[in-house]
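Q: what sequence does this backbone want?
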């Protein structure tokens, strides 16, 4: 059984503060990484941006590739493809 801490000693965050802290951790804790998995839910938006999910048996990550980068790709992504991508 754990004892409750007095409110004054707890760190209480707003949703905005939590979202900003999570963003900071993701952007600076993993500045550049390689990600391997299967493409699913691929969507080519009218803007030229690509939205998709990279998944494996245990998890999935939503991704976006913006138009300038998407234009450099030498293949057409599709659901079910296994890919290795560089992300930040």
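A:
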């Amino acid at each position: 059984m754990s004892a409750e801490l007095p409110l004054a000693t707890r760190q209480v965050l707003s949703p905005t503060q939590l979202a900003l802290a999570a963003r900071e951790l993701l952007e600076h804790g993993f500045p550049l990484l390689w990600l391997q998995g299967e493409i699913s839910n691929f969507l080519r938006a009218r803007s030229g941006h690509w939205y998709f999910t990279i998944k494996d048996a245990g998890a999935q990550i939503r991704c976006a590739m913006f138009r300038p980068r998407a234009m450099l790709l030498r293949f057409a992504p599709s659901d079910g493809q296994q890919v290795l991508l560089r992300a930040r």
